[in-house]
Amino acid sequence: MIYIWTGFLLFIFAVLALDLGVFNRKDHVPTTREALGFTAATVVLALAFAALVIVAYDQHWQGLGLALDAVDGQLNTGQSAAIKFVTGYLVELSLSMDNVFVIALIFGHLKVPAKLQHRVLFWGILGALAMRGAMIAGGAALVSRYHWVMYVFGGFLVLTAVKMLFAKKQEESPEEQWIVRWLNRHFRVTKEFHAQHFMIIRDGKRYLTPLAVALVLVESTDVLFAVDSIPAIFSITADPFLVFTSNVFAILCLRSLYFGLAGMLQKFRYLGVSLAIILGIVGLKMLFSSFVKQLLGDAANVTMLAIVLGVLVGGAVLSAVAEQRGRKNKA
Question: What is the pTM for the complete model shown?
Answer without folding.
Answer: 0.79
